[in-house]
Amino acid sequence: MNFSIEYFHSRVQAEIESWPDGILADYARLVELLIEFGPNLKMPHSKAMGKGLFELRPKGREGIGRAFYCFLIGQRIIILHAFIKKTPATPEPELKIARKRIKEVQNA
């Protein structure tokens, strides 16, 4: 059974659509895998970040993108937050945004 993708807010989708072409193309490929495999998608494509939060790990010649997401009942995947990585480690402020948003969707 396939999963469906939703965005926390239209700004999240707009951020992703503004990414450089190579990263965006890899994101599109990874989303297709995520729709097909859901929680069975693992490294190097997806990484569990704890407490129901996951990160999708697209990359291209232009750099590395990250999209945080979670699963909801009914085969729904919510893309919570996305950004282009500029440092080797995931910046804490980016994680904080995703963690705040996952609480919002889980308590809705």
Write the layout of secondary structure elements.
Layout: E1 4-7, H1 10-17, H2 21-37, E2 46-50, E3 53-56, E4 59-60, E5 63-72, E6 76-85, H3 92-106
Parallel strand pairs: 1-6
Antiparallel strand pairs: 2-3, 3-5, 4-5, 5-6
3D architecture notes:
By secondary structure, this protein is of the alpha+beta class. It has helices spanning 10-17, 21-37, 92-106; strands at residues 4-7, 46-50, 53-56, 59-60, 63-72, 76-85. Strands 1, 2, 3, 4, 5 and 6 form a six-stranded mixed sheet that branches.
In angstroms, what separates the terminal alpha carbons? 24 Å
- Helical amount among residues, as a percent range? 25-40%
SS summary, helix count: 3
Kindly state the mean pLDDT as a whole number? 96
Total number of domains? 1
Strand content: 25-35%
Question: Helix/strand/pairing class, anyone?
Answer: alpha+beta
Radius of gyration: 13 Å
Order of SSEs, N→C?
EHHEEEEEH
User: Unreliable segments (pLDDT under 50, ≥5 consecutive)?
Assistant: none
User: CATH superfamily assignment?
Assistant: RelE-like
Q: Please provide the count of β strands.
A: 6
The CATH architecture is 2-Layer Sandwich
